[in-house]
Amino acid sequence: MTIEFYDLAGQDGRNFSPYCWRTRMALAHKGLDFEHRGTAFTAIAAAGGTAHRTVPIIVDAGKMISDSSRIADYLEAQYPDRPSLFGGEAGHALCKFVHSWTNAVVHPGVARSVVHDIYDHVRDEDRDYFRTSREKVFGQPLAAVQAGREDRLEAFRADLYPLRLTVRAQAFLGGERANYADYIVFGAFQWARSISDFRILADDDPILAWFRRCGELFDGLGRQAPGYY
Amino acid sequence: MTIEFYDLAGQDGRNFSPYCWRTRMALAHKGLDFEHRGTAFTAIAAAGGTAHRTVPIIVDAGKMISDSSRIADYLEAQYPDRPSLFGGEAGHALCKFVHSWTNAVVHPGVARSVVHDIYDHVRDEDRDYFRTSREKVFGQPLAAVQAGREDRLEAFRADLYPLRLTVRAQAFLGGERANYADYIVFGAFQWARSISDFRILADDDPILAWFRRCGELFDGLGRQAPGYY
Prior knowledge:
The structure is a homodimer.
Chain A: E1 3-8, H1 18-29, E2 34-39, H2 44-48, E3 57-60, E4 63-66, H3 68-78, H4 89-121, H5 127-138, H6 142-146, H7 149-159, H8 161-169, H9 180-195, H10 206-224
Parallel strand pairs in A: 1-2
Antiparallel strand pairs in A: 1-3, 3-4
Helix pairs in contact in A: 1-3, 1-9, 4-7, 4-9, 9-10
């Protein structure tokens, strides 16, 4: 039975959620067919009910699962004969460090760089919700959060140095082949690419070359998604 | 045949090199006996010749290997029947990210916090070499590099957040059991503990609890080494 995949959707079919990209790449890695259900922020409740309040959500054989980490663990356990997302227990454990680093370093830097651009790309029915909820998080208007991003760029790029060192020396975080660690970080940059022309990564950054390699995976799944570059 | 292990040695049997600690823990992880050869900075050339200019160095069955990463790869390949350092290809690849993060974030923060304390603990014959070489790197006197460490501490602790998140949720970076990723990061904090009473980690920091867990491994190998806490 085909898996249902509830993904965040903005204007023009832009799927920008970094966590949903983790799941989308994981489904492709496992070679699983899925029906893509683009969902507005304000339509998640109708899809997931009170038990699943955020996307990504998948429904597999009648079972609903949310949270990208839980979904990855579910897919790995449920489809052990498909290519492994983690490459064993040690790989799974180390993905937690990549997850923590991405959430602590990459996501905040991306968010402060493009949050107003996200606002410009959410569906009309999501605009009030998005602005109100995010301005509460940041404590200031979205335009003010994003302002000065050019001045912060050098420091943010420096914070990405551990990733740069790694993907300069090997094709993927997972080694010669990409694994879930790559999808965790890829999601963050795909998020930015989907809704903003602001170039977080310089043209000659080895991270951009790695991002392109990830975008080519699974017949160009990432590259073919709507985006600015 | 017992492996020879050339380790940096300061005063009072203090072995403070973070890279040598990676190797020492790796040897213990593999359950390999070794003869410990405490070596002054200025005695490395006599041990390693022109081909091996830094410690750690090991000599196994007449073969000399230097560089902690190369040594770990050698041990993993040479002793495949012993407990794995990496847990497979994905674990090995992800250790490179942990290595890059540790070298880019943890080592500079530790070095700026304790570099003058290192100077105070190197052997007499190493003092001129250490000061001259490190002042060239930092471009200022060692006391000036270290000055203000209290003021930098909050920011440095914040930089450690990805590690904190991870070891708060699981016992080791490697998961339920420690692996080489843990030894990479452990070496950095053991370096500081060996030669300084300056507390980089707060008493209630989950990273300190993880550091203690690592110190208990292999019959307390890390804990029993001379140190300030």
